[in-house]
Amino acid sequence: MDTQRFAAGLFAFAVVAVSAGSSVASGQAAPASTPAASAPSTVGTALGRDVTLRLGQEAAVQGRDLTVRYTRLVSDSRCRPGMQCFWQGEASVAFLLSEPGRGESTTAELHTGPRTGPQATSFAASRVELVSVSQDAGEATVRIS
Q: Which end of the chain has fewer beta carbons closer than 10 Å to its terminal beta carbon, N or C?
């Protein structure tokens, strides 16, 4: 009987320890990130190259009627520096994908890992893939192909 109580207590401790490593489980809200009210800055990029965007910044693809803007951090359950976590977690970020010449646009929520959603999307005959998100979520790197 003592062995069963010990095992149950150990299991309960493990559940609490795993939950404590996640910002979502510990009740910490993801940082609210909103771009500045001014017009976003634009950087040029070529197909197949990685481009790093600051929050609110957009990339214009050379030779294509396509822009990709990093609009906001949706959620972030990644393990913080200095913490020991059982799961590394994932970040989800939102982008505005536009074809300015056609007046068309859509939003896409991309994820750093496959557990919570897609890492890539297609728009305007192009593929937009999330490569990484900085630890403070101020920058997101995408590959447009």
A: N
Query: 139 exposed, middle or buried (CB, 10 Å; 0-12, 13-18, 19+)?
Result: middle
Joined tokens for residue 73: 């951090």
Residue linked to tokens 């009210």? 37
35 backbone dihedrals φ, ψ, rounded to 5°: -70, 160
Cα separation, 98 vs 104, in Å, equals 6
Please state, in angstroms and rounded to a whole number, the distance separating the CA atoms of residues 32 and 76.
11
Dist. CA 102–CA 12, nearest whole Å = 56
Structure confidence by residue, pLDDT tens digits, 88-114: 889 999 999 999 999 999 999 999 987
pLDDT digits (tens, 9 = 90+) for 26-47: 334 444 444 444 456 999 999 9
CA 47/CA 144 separation, integer angstroms = 6
Distance, CA of 50 to CA of 131 (rounded, Å): 8
Q: Is the pLDDT of residue 22 over 90?
A: no
pLDDT exceeding 70 applies to what percent of the chain?
Answer: 72
